[in-house]
């Protein structure tokens, strides 16, 4: 009988950085895509800083990145990937705009998946900004162009090939976040993943995988959770249950004492 090889798989679930419309409410008045704001400079700096933090203190490498198609998430992913793949130590760089040389071989794949997208309802997409026809019109090629050159594997098949329908329920969105975390982890069980999504997705990653299903009342910009499970290899691969293995409050996730059904969705400004 062969010996069992045991390892751990880590999945980091991260919220995007500081979005422009929370700092300039008038931006949406003339925006071509008011539901899809970019990051402000502070958001890019924050995301790049988190990438450097991952390099210095995460304790394990990131092998693959999956990201929501919303621009704020794509730009966050770009900054984090620049930091993760930087050739130099980036002590003096604040963001990718400061001229960061990268080695794209350090991170195998960055892919866009609709399953990580924002909750597509009025609780998350503010009414004046939502498309009147419910069509968000994402183009995957344009999304991929935001990510650093050489880091995208466009051959990866998306888990969710289409966006959810406009006015999806909050419960459906939460189920979607839980499902995609599990599906992506099972698809790549021997690799550590970084999923860049929205506040609700990070909250679900904590609530779904803590023993008492701890409620989350707030998720700060670039906050992240870390899920970890054991992986046993003995001819075939078997996986244990995920556990949240990080002090969530130190990574910008605020736990709430109230019952889950009474928690308001973290839609403003948590998305």
List the keywords.
271 residues, disordered C terminus, Rossmann fold, alpha/beta, 5 helices, single chain
Note down, in words, how this protein is organized.
InterPro entries: His_Pase_superF_clade-1 (IPR013078), His_PPase_superfam (IPR029033), Phosphatase_SH3-domain (IPR051710), PRIB5 (IPR012398). With 271 residues, the chain is an alpha/beta fold. The strands form 2 sheets. Strands 1, 2, 3, 4, 6, 7 and 8 form a 7-stranded mixed β-sheet that branches. Strands 5-9 form a two-stranded antiparallel sheet. It is globular, with a radius of gyration of 18 Å. Helix 1 packs across helix 2. The chain has a single domain (8-202), classed as Phosphoglycerate mutase-like (Rossmann fold), CATH 3.40.50. The chain has helices spanning 41-57, 71-84, 140-145, 170-187, 199-207; strands at residues 5-15, 64-67, 109-112, 193-197, 216-219, 224-234, 236-239, 243-244, 253-255.
Show unreliable segments. 258-270
Output the CATH class name: Alpha Beta
Tally of extended strands?
9
CATH architecture tag = 3-Layer(aba) Sandwich
* Element order: H for helix, E for strand: EHEHEHHEHEEEEE
Strand % is: 15-25%
Approximate shape? globular
InterPro entries: His_Pase_superF_clade-1 (IPR013078), His_PPase_superfam (IPR029033), Phosphatase_SH3-domain (IPR051710), PRIB5 (IPR012398)
List the helices and strands and how they pair.
Layout: E1 5-15, H1 41-57, E2 64-67, H2 71-84, E3 109-112, H3 140-145, H4 170-187, E4 193-197, H5 199-207, E5 216-219, E6 224-234, E7 236-239, E8 243-244, E9 253-255
């Amino acid at each position: 009988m062969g010996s069992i090889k045991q390892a751990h798989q880590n999945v980091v679930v991260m919220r995007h950085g500081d979005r422009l419309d929370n700092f300039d409410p008038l931006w949406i008045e003339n925006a071509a895509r008011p539901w899809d704001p970019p990051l402000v400079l502070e958001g890019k700096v924050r995301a790049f800083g988190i990438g450097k933090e991952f390099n210095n203190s995460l304790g394990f490498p990131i092998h693959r990145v999956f990201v929501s198609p919303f621009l704020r998430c794509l730009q966050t992913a770009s900054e984090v990937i620049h930091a993760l793949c930087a050739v130099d130590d980036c002590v003096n760089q604040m963001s990718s705009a400061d001229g960061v040389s990268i080695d794209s071989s350090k991170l195998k794949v960055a892919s866009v998946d609709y399953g990580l997208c924002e909750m597509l309802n009025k609780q998350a997409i503010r009414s004046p900004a939502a498309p009147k026809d419910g069509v968000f019109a994402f183009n995957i090629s344009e999304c991929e162009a935001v990510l650093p050159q050489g880091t995208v594997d466009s051959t990866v098949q998306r888990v969710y090939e289409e966006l959810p329908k406009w006015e999806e329920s909050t419960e459906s969105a939460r189920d979607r976040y839980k499902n995609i975390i599990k599906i992506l982890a099972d698809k790549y069980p021997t690799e550590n993943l970084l999923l860049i999504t929205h506040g609700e997705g990070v909250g679900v990653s904590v609530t779904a995988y803590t023993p008492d299903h701890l409620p989350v009342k707030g998720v700060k910009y670039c906050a992240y959770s870390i899920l970890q499970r054991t992986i046993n290899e003995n001819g075939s691969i078997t996986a244990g249950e995920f556990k949240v293995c990080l002090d969530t409050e130190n990574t910008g996730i605020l736990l709430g004492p109230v019952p889950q059904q009474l928690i308001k969705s973290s839609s403003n400004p948590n998305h």
